[in-house]
Amino acid sequence: MARIALETGRGVVKESAREEILARLRQAPKMEIPARPVMPTPREALFDRDGLIARFTEELTRESGVVYRAADREEILDYLTEIARAESLTRIMMSTDDMIRSLDLPAWGERQGVSVSTAADYPDRESYTRAVFDETDAGVTGADFAVAETGTLVIAHGGNQPRLVSLAPVLHVAVVGIDRLVPIYEDALSVFYGGAGRIPPAHLTLVTGPSMTADIRATAFKGMHGPRRVIVILAG
Asked: Rounded to two decimals, what is the model's pTM?
């Protein structure tokens, strides 16, 4: 509580305790904010395209992921056909981002005997959630970026990129253009958070290989909180 006192016989109100404290703070010596240290350039920033591809592949493979290279749309579909046969896929759910939409997976699915759906095909969230968790063999999505330094996918979720499509099925297949391969995290995150006035995504997922936990008896277990397998097709 502020202390207010009157000088005897003068009727002059002294400064309150709060004002005294603030006055002392204003008189305190000013401390300059130290300059941010110059960080060394990450070696990935010096890689050419082939170097970035090699580093991304090495890092994701280290985390039990699989990477394929596809030159064009036809090769992407060929890889998806191989994956569908190897994994005995009968039902997949796809995102509707630009990359995946360009593949016309529903038509591909008809040729391969694979049912292809999107989140919009379900009348309500309950039926969509049941389908993506219990009835879908694989989720096929694009990704906003692929980060070479750690073999990480960066996925911004929204209407065309529902979060559960990449997180709920036991297999996640991501198709990413080579032009979305960046050296380090900062290159990707600065696009979403690096400027005034930008509206960041409601949810951003960083995927580095299959979901894994060691919470139970310090034993590594894949697929506890997400896909057990992650396959990336680098396109272009």
From this structure: 0.80
